[in-house]
Design brief:
This protein is of the alpha+beta class and 68 residues long. Helix content is 37%, strand content 22%. It has three helices and three strands, in the order H-E-E-E-H-H.
């Protein structure tokens, strides 16, 4: 399996907004988003591993990258 580069946490937020999630609150270390049913906690760490972000959003890596 090839190495997939990490992404900026702000790019992750924008991609998840395209998937239907909305910003609930922001803290110093994490951002919390929700789609009305599920809550996601995104770390404010750069770069975030793409596999981690796919797992957080319940999306495959390929689906997540299509939203970027």
């Amino acid at each position: 399996m090839s190495k997939i580069p990490g992404i900026n946490h702000l790019q992750a937020v924008k991609a998840l907004e395209k998937a239907g999630f909305r910003l609930v609150r922001q803290g110093k270390k994490h951002i919390v988003m929700s789609d009305g049913i599920h809550f996601l906690t995104i770390p404010r760490k750069n770069p975030i591993n793409a596999y981690t972000m796919g797992g957080i959003g319940g999306l495959s890596v390929e689906e997540f990258y299509k939203l970027l």
